[in-house]
Specification:
Layout: H1 2-28, E1 30-31, E2 46-52, E3 58-64, E4 71-76, E5 80-81, H2 83-86, H3 90-94, E6 98-103, H4 118-133, E7 141-146, H5 148-159, E8 164-168, H6 174-181, H7 196-199, E9 207-212, H8 221-226, E10 235-239, H9 251-260
Parallel strand pairs: 1-5, 4-6, 4-7, 7-8, 8-9, 9-10
Antiparallel strand pairs: 2-3, 3-6
Length: 266
Amino acid sequence: MLLGILAFFLVAYAMLCTGVYFYQEKIIFYPEKLAKNYVFNFNDDFEEITIRTKDEKNLNAVLFKSQNPKGIIFYLHGNAGSIKGWGEVAQFYNSMNYDVFILDYRGYGKSEGDIVSKEQLFSDIELAYDEVIKRYSENRIIILGYSVGTGLAAKLASQKNAKLLILQAPYYSIADEMSQKFSFLPKFLLKYSFETHEYLKTVKSPVIIFHGEKDEVINYKSSLKLKENFKKGDSLIILKNQSHNGITDNLDYQNSMKKILEFDKK
């Protein structure tokens, strides 16, 4: 009987591990899908841009325009939703005379295809960045990542020469998050390790991290660990009483960003 119980649990564990490996895209990514003919209803000036991937898929991106742009925010959003909702963040940066470029990953919004590997995801993001470089010089580009987008942003910044890298609520790595929340699962199952701490070691541009003190999704201690990889000029700003969502609306965040971006109220 004991052997039978043990065998049952071993089989159940093996099935769980198999499910996690083959269905982890559905565990990590929660896209909002939009019809190809969906019309965005943003109040500000914007332009839709199509990014053609190496395997001939079309990815949808939106460029939100300010009147006299000082530069551009290359924004990599979180794991849920689509540009339809994420586009709201553009208004804040536009008000400081920065254009905002937001890409919908594969399967998000009007973007075609599905995410199947981190290499594919990195390639898509690099292609989008290369499209932005056609319009803006790199010394005017700020890479900004939120939540799951922080690892993607750090990876991109480690390969490029952007003006600045900003991370909102970053993780040390997805493997580290897995260890905290699902310690009973072996790490080799994870296809999307997103090792932010390793990417930061080769980022040449200044790095600024914002993290909510009361983040219930990614503990702010992850940013404290990332701080150990800082170089001279990098900084960490802990936002008091801030949870995981809504960092862009946080007044302390906005005041800090106004100083960082040299916002002239006049």
